[in-house]
Design a protein that fits this description.
This is 3-keto-5-aminohexanoate cleavage protein. By secondary structure, the chain is α/β, with parallel strands linked by helices. It contains nine helices and eight strands. It is about 40% helix and about 15% strand.
Length: about 240
Amino acid sequence: MPTAKIYVKACINGARTPDQHPNLPVTPKELAAAAVSAHEAGAQAVHMHPKASDGRDSLEPDVVAAAVTAVRAAAPGLPLGVTTGFWALPDADARRRAVEAWTVLPDFASLNWHEPGSPELAEVLLGKGLGVEVGLFHLEAAAAWAESKMAQHCMRVMIELQGHEDVVVADAMLERIASAGSPAPVLLHGLDESCWPLLEHAGECGVQTRIGMEDTLKLPDGSVTPDNAALVSAAVQLLSR
């Protein structure tokens, strides 16, 4: 299990689809099993993308309710978050209305600040009593977030970098976010080829991080991971050095 200073969140599926990995969790039952195994491997929280029957992300209330209910039953008390990704419902008003209609709630939701309608959706999430994890993909988004009231009211700030980005970009983002004076903890992660280097950099910088099949399908040695638990175990091992 991780030491007290290590914080790893498991991101168990992301926007990936089942054709990308045979063990990608999609159904509520699969999401619940993945959440439990990731937690047992050392993850302190779980982030998931509820999915429709075709494997695509969905923000519809019944889909979110089924996923959250299943994970809650399997892992009571495990901090649980879901996506609000614009790609799942690419219309700002429709996305806001879908989230307003959620009745079975997770503990928190991620919100990418550069996406259309995100400030308004943040108000909806806060009004429901949900924690807001703000996702910052670049310096422009970080600057806009820093000037908003969400700099003081979000529960976590996530630096979300792409596969081609590196620690130089990460450090610039960390510096910009620190200058905002937000009380929220910072989480740093990468994607695919940048995933493991940035996870290690997060550990070196003393910030939170995450791992799971959303961010990579490969273990540090380049082999394809069998599941989310193996990724979490590898992350805990790296961060515990």
